[in-house]
């Protein structure tokens, strides 16, 4: 593990900015943070520039043998590796996702937000929220901005090998299979899945705040209203808070 100073990005007499993996905020003491306000990557919407692949789950002492061309079968929130499996609506090719599984311990390597299933995204979100709960004071508050996604057979974006397509503040250069149990065009309800999972993990869901956007990005879809809002989950670790 690196020292605290390795991730110190900026410091003066008033503030310190750290740049590192949010799954392990070891620079911060237990119950030392008053408020967390964050907008993490939404599920399956874009790939940000730069290398952001992390290792999730599995055995931290494993040597990891990454499988790029294996198939993963979606289970109840987990993915298991199957070699020479037939691809169906509950399977996906690893080489199409810019992520990979370890054939030894089933760890997943990839960027947060690009998980192949919503169940895995929720699992990783709760993992991050647990580390936040560790550093959050008993009277602390979390504001968690999160958007939703639609069920589809493929994410929009460029095919592999094509020029990278700049999209607002991120990049979309992938076109992997996106696996859900929902028929295409269904709203995945990711914010509410996160809220329920957080509630079940011990958080108080105090409010679902609507971020209204009077001038939203136009959409070409003709069979539903244009999305003109996002959600901000207000979470606390106790019933009484500041």
Keywords:
242 residues, alpha+beta, 4-stranded antiparallel beta sheet, globular
Kindly describe this structure.
The chain has helices at residues 118-135, 190-200, and strands spanning 8-11, 16-18, 33-38, 54-56, 66-67, 71-74, 79-82, 91-93, 100-102, 108-110, 136-146, 165-167, 170-172, 204-212, 229-236. It is of the alpha+beta class and 242 residues long. The strands form 5 sheets. Strands 3-11-15-14 form a 4-stranded mixed β-sheet. A 4-stranded antiparallel β-sheet has the order 4-10-9-5, with no helix packed on it. Strands 7-6-8 form a 3-stranded antiparallel β-sheet, with no helix packed on it. Strand 6 and strand 7 (79-82) form a beta hairpin. The two termini are 34 Å apart. The model is unreliable at 69-97 and 154-177 (pLDDT under 50).
Detail the topology: elements first, then pairings.
Layout: E1 8-11, E2 16-18, E3 33-38, E4 54-56, E5 66-67, E6 71-74, E7 79-82, E8 91-93, E9 100-102, E10 108-110, H1 118-135, E11 136-146, E12 165-167, E13 170-172, H2 190-200, E14 204-212, E15 229-236
Helix pairs in contact: 1-2
Assembly level: single chain
Low-pLDDT residue spans = 69-97, 154-177
Distance between the termini: 34 Å
Count of helical regions: 2
Order of helices and strands: EEEEEEEEEEHEEEHEE
Question: How much helix is in the residues?
Answer: 10-25%
Brief digest:
This protein is of the alpha+beta class and 242 residues long.
């Amino acid at each position: 593990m690196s020292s605290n100073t390795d991730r110190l990005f900026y410091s003066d007499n008033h503030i310190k900015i750290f740049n590192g993996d949010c799954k392990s905020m070891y620079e911060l003491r237990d119950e030392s943070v008053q408020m967390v306000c964050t907008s993490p990557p939404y599920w399956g919407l874009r790939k940000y520039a730069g290398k952001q692949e992390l290792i999730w789950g599995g055995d931290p002492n494993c040597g990891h043998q990454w499988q790029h061309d294996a198939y993963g079968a979606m289970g109840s929130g987990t993915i298991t590796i199957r070699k020479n499996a037939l691809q169906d609506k509950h399977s996906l090719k690893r080489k199409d996702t810019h992520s990979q599984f370890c054939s030894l311990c089933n760890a997943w390597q990839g960027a947060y937000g690009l998980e192949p299933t919503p169940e895995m995204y929720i699992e990783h979100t709760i993992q991050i929220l647990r580390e936040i709960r560790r550093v959050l004071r008993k009277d602390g508050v979390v504001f968690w901005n999160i958007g939703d996604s639609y069920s589809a057979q493929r994410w929009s974006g460029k095919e592999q090998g094509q020029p990278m397509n700049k999209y607002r503040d991120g990049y979309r250069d992938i076109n992997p299979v996106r696996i859900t149990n929902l028929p295409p065009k269904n709203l995945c309800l990711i914010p509410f899945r996160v809220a329920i999972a957080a509630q079940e993990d011990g958080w108080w869901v105090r409010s679902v705040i609507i971020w209204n956007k009077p001038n939203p990005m136009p959409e070409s879809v003709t069979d539903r209203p244009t999305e003109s809002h996002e959600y901000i989950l207000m979470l606390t670790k106790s019933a009484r808070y500041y």
